Amino acid sequence: MINSYKEFWTHIFTMNAKANRSQYWWPVIINYILGGIAVGIIENILGHPLSTIYTPGDLYVDSTVRSVAFVVWIGTFTVKARRLHDTNRSAWWILIEIIPLIGTIWFFILTLLPGVSDSRWGKNQRNI
């Protein structure tokens, strides 16, 4: 679990590799939990939702949260691509999520499929 999460941050910009199921799911689950905890703490400290800006300090917090969210989004995007590569699919399959509900379910199923040993992308992210 910890190794998968470290690899997520180590290979944040790696697209041409593979990620097995644990290398995909652990970072996704951990980021989801940490994000919820962080938002809850920040909103309790501020005393209002993050989406409302009342003071310049709120603007600073909002900018920081958006910057961190963008970096996490980049890492999540690339690990999605690596997960699809492990199933011998192109990263373009990420666009299936554009289709409401059905696309999200389809992508979820794609991430659950087992990896293929003779994939076009030969290296696992651990071996880079």
From TrEMBL:
It comes from the Bacteria. This is DUF805 domain-containing protein. It comes from Lentilactobacillus kisonensis DSM 19906 = JCM 15041. GO terms for cellular component: plasma membrane. The chain crosses the membrane at residues 24-47, 59-79, 91-113. Pfam families: DUF805. InterPro entries: DUF805 (IPR008523). Keywords: Membrane, Transmembrane, Transmembrane helix.
